[in-house]
Amino acid sequence: MRNLLRFACIAAFATVLFACNGRSGKPRLLVFSKTTGFRHGSIAAGQKAIMKLGQEHGFEVDTTENSDYFNEDSLSNYAAVVFLNTTGYPLNNVQQADFERYIQAGGGYMGIHAATDAEYDWGWYSRLAGAQFASHPEQQEANLDVIDATHASTKHLPKVWRRKDEWYNFKNLNPDVKVLIKIDESSYKGGKNNGNHPMAWYHDYDGGRAFYTELGHTDESYVDDNYLKHILGGIQYAMGDNKKLDYSKAKGLRVPDENRFTKSILTEGTLFEPTEMTILPNLDILVAQRRGELMRYKSADKSFKQVGFLDVYHQTHTKGVNAEEGVLGLQADPDFATNHFVYIMYSPIDTSVNRLSRFKFENDTLDMKSEKIIIQFYSQREICCHTGGSIAFGPNKELFVSAGDNSTPFDEPGQKYVNRGFGPLDDRPGHEQYDARRSAGNTNDLRGKILRIKINPDGSYTVPDGNLFAKGTEGTKPEIYVMGNRNPYRISVDKKNGYLYWGEVGPDASADSTGTRGPRGYDELNQAKKAGYFGWPLFVGNNYPYNAYDYATGKSGEAFDPAKPVNNSRNNTGIQQLPPVAPAFIWYPYGESAEFPQVGAGGRNAMAGPVYYTDMFPKETRYPDFFNNKLFIYDWIRGWVKVVTLKPNGDFDKMEPFMPSTRFNSMIDMEVGPDGKLYVLEYGSGWFSKNADAALARIDFNGGNRAPKVDDL
Fold this sequence. Notes:
This protein is mainly beta. The protein has two domains: 20-249, Class I glutamine amidotransferase (GATase) domain (Rossmann fold), CATH 3.40.50; 261-701, TolB, C-terminal domain (Neuraminidase), CATH 2.120.10.30.
C-alpha cells in the first residue's frame, strides 16, 4: 500500500510538472518558405500537405513568408519551425539572433530540401541544418538506404527506398548529426559525396531539436504516402513534447537596436589627410596626418591643435605619380601612462626609407629630441604605391608594424605586355617597380610584410620566438611575422589571444583570366593565428593562383602552387622555396561575393578594427555583452562596418552589419578607447586633399531611455 501511495504521488507530481512546462492546447507549427534565391514550384504543395498533416494528427499550422515572424514574441507560440525550401538569405541579423535564442530555449527546427541552400554566411544555421547545398545533377530515380529504421520518420520505410527527386550534393556536413537515410551513389549519376552521402538526419543542437530531409523538390513528393509519413515523423520529432520555451537557457543575446548608437563628431573639417590615431589613457587622442603634422584632440575642453611635426617625403617630383608615403602610423606605448612613449612610422624627407621611431609625448608636445630610431628599411621613391605603416601592440607588448609592397600596380607606359591589374611579376632589368616578388615575396626584404618585435627600454628591440623564420636562417629577415602582403593598411591584434588581423587592399583586375593571367582582384580581411606566408603576389583571395607571365613575350606559364610556392624572380634576394600559403579569412571582389554576400559590391578597401572584450572596459561606458569577443571590420570605400562572430577556435562564423544606416566618410582608422567606445577617423571624400568631411568621431551607446521619435508621437 505504501509503495502504491508513493507511486501515485510521483505520478501526480510528474503530471503537475508537465502541466507547468507544457503548452495549453494543440502544438503549433510555423512553416516558413521565404526565398531570396531559386524559388521551388513545390512550395505551395508542401504548405498544403503539411497543413493537412496537422489537421489529421492534432497540430496547428501557420504558413508564412514574412521574416518578421522571427522575433521572440512570435516564435514563442510555436513548438517547431519548418524551413520549407527556403533559399538565399531570408533572415536579417536581428531575426537570426532571435531564432538562435528560440532554439536555445528549447524550440524545434525542421528543414526540407532547399533549407540547406540558405544562409551560407551564418555558421550556426548551417550546423543546425546539418549541411550546406553544394550542387545537384538532373532529377532521376535513385536508391535510398534506410540506415536507422527506429525513428518515427523512417520506421515505415522499406530498407531500400527507390524514388525520383532532385538529389543534393553537400558541403560542410555536420559530423555530429544522427543519419537516418543515405543515398546509394552507384544507383544514379552525379553523386559527389564519395559514397558516404546522407539524405536525412536529426540531432539535438544548442538546446533544441533539429531534423532535416533532403527529399521534397517535386510536387509529387507531397502526395506520396511514404514521403508524407517521413516528414510527419520529422515534424513530430522537432515539436517534441510541446513544452514551453525556457529563455533562461538561451545563451545567445539579442541584437541591440541601432538607434541606441550615435556617431558623435569630435572634430570635423580640421583634418588634412589623417592616417592613424591613438587614444591616450585620459581619452585625449593623437592623430597623425600624412603630410607631417601630429594633431591632438583634448577630451577635457574638446580643443584640437597641432602638437608636433615631422619633415616627411609625401609627394613626388614625377609628373602624374602620387606618393603615398609620409606619416603612416601612430601608436601609444601600452605603458604610456608612466613612460609617455609614442611610436610613429614615417618616411623621412632626406632618406629613402620608411622608419619606425619612438618619441616622448609630454606637456602637449612631441619631443623631437627624444627620437629613438627602432627599425628602418629601404623604400623606392618617385613611384606609387603601397606603404602600409599601421602599428599595433599585442597582449605581451610585442609591437606589430605593417609595410606595403612598394610596387606599382598600374600598367607600365610604352610596354606591349603589361600588368592589367593582376599580380605584378615583371622581373626584367629596369622594371623593378612592377615586380612585387622583389618585396612582398622576398624573404630577405621587409617590404610587403608585417613585422613583430619586442621593444627594449632603451629603444632597441629583440625578435621574439615564433616569427616566420628562425633567427640566423640564411636569406631571411627574423623580424618577419607575416609575408606576402600587398598593402596591409590597417592592422589590429586581439588583446587576449594575440591573433593578428589586417585589411589587405587588393589588385584591380575585374574579371578572371583563367589559364592566362589568373584570378580577378580581391580585397582580404586576414587573420594570422601564427606566423605565415599569405600569398602575394603569387596568389590572391582564397589562395587563387596567378600564372607565371613573361613580360617580354606575353606568354603565360603554369599557375603557382599554393602548397609549394616558388619565387624565381631575378629580383629576389631571399630563398626561392616559400612557405605554403596560409588560409584566407575573408575575401571579396568588386562584384558580389558568393561567400560573403553582406560585403556588397563596388570599390573596395578592406580595413581591420579591434576585437572587442567587454570585461576590459568600465561597465558605465562599454558596449553591450552582445559584442563580446567579436571582431570589427570596415571598408574605406564602401563605408560599412561589420561585426564578425568567431568560433571558439577563432575561425570565421558569421558577419553582420553595425550601424548600417549611419554614414561614414572614408574610414581610415578605428580604435577602441579605454572607455570601451569605438573611435573612428574619417579621411573624407577626396584624395590627397583637405576634406570638409574629414572627421574624428566617437560611437556612443545609450543603454537607457531613448528620446522619442517624431513619428512615434
